[in-house]
Write a structure and sequence with these properties.
Length: 199
């Protein structure tokens, strides 16, 4: 008599239950959370994200925990992505190289589509110690990268902090405009003036 055939959820002859494959990746869920934040603001819920990606709320809780855990995962992902991106770029000192680097950073912002999600995250960062710590790590990576490209300046790190502050401040100025000028162009105009007039 033949043995019992394994079911589609069993593993070979041992009958071990295999985990179901993820139909939606973690990255897709985190991306969906950003989309939901952009449209719903700080009142977004796990149910909102679940509907957006076609998963149940229970599945999200099982995979990520609560809403704050998803926010922290997004922040951790941003820190790692920033680090890897910066490590892949050549470090060249000089006025031209510095501007090219700053232009690259700002141009990556694009026209500002979805930037409202970034504003929402900043609001959460102001209220959550873990998110603040991760934001500080991300800022430090960018400021260090800017400083590495500033030529012959004993105060290069202070200068890099100032330049980064202009970028961050200009993005918030853009938020209250009518959007007729894209985010990156708006920020670059203000940054260009600062670089040209930097003592």
């Amino acid at each position: 008599m033949h043995g019992r055939r394994p079911t589609s959820t069993s593993n070979s002859i041992f009958g071990e239950i295999m985990p179901r494959p993820k139909t939606v990746s973690d990255e897709e869920v985190l991306g969906a959370a950003l989309d939901v934040m952009a449209s719903r603001g700080m009142i977004f819920t796990l149910s909102d994200i679940a509907r957006h990606v076609g998963l149940s709320r229970a599945t999200l809780i099982q995979r990520f925990g609560d809403r704050d855990s998803i926010l922290r995962r997004i922040a951790e992902q941003e820190v790692e992505a920033t680090r890897l991106w910066l490590e892949g770029l050549p470090i060249i000192e000089g006025d031209d190289a510095l501007w090219q680097f700053l232009e690259m950073i700002v141009s990556s912002m694009g026209q500002g589509d979805g930037f409202s999600a970034r504003v929402q995250i900043a609001a959460f960062e102001s209220r959550d110690a873990k998110l603040r710590s991760l934001a500080a790590q991300r800022y430090a990576l960018v400021q260090k990268a800017i400083a590495a490209r500033i030529p012959n300046n004993a105060e290069r790190f202070e200068t890099s902090q100032h330049l980064h502050a202009i970028i961050a401040g200009a993005t918030m100025q853009w938020v209250v405009t009518d959007g007729s000028e894209g985010l990156s162009d708006f920020v670059l105009r203000r940054l260009r003036w600062a670089v040209d007039n930097l003592a």
